[in-house]
Amino acid sequence: MPPSPVTCRLDRWLWTVRVFKTRTLATGACRDGRVRIDDSIVKPSREVRIGEVVTVRDGLIGRVYRVVGIPASRIGAKLVPDHCEDRTPTAEIERAKAARVQQVLARERGAGRPTKRDRRQLDDLLDQL
């Protein structure tokens, strides 16, 4: 097994630690300005080093990761904590969950009462939270 590299392209690192499903999505997020390293917007070709803090804006939530290692290739989900430390504030995660629940609970004006099926789905959703 070859030794792990010291640096890696940002879009490749985001893909290898499973922040994005495809490298194309990671590249697009970098180009759109949704990815930052140490509070500065970066291009997909930026080299990422161990110890840097990467922030990825994903809808309502801004995920914060610290680079712990640089994998040689895409890794399994169980190995991700060896290369990436999630430092997302819990308040931000709770805010995103609350927004998701609010969106589900909001009913269109004039839609009437929820049906029995709708009500059960809402109850199941609220029980999961």
UniProtKB/TrEMBL annotation:
RNA-binding S4 domain ranges (all copies): 8-74
Name the record gives this protein: S4 domain-containing protein
Question: Entry's PROSITE patterns?
Answer: S4
Name of a matching Pfam family: S4
The annotated region (Disordered) lies at 105-129
Q: Which GO terms describe its molecular function?
A: DNA binding; ribosomal large subunit binding; single-stranded RNA binding
Say yes or no: keyword DNA-binding present.
yes
Q: What is the similarity comment for this entry?
A: Belongs to the HSP15 family.
Q: Name one GO biological process term.
A: cellular response to heat
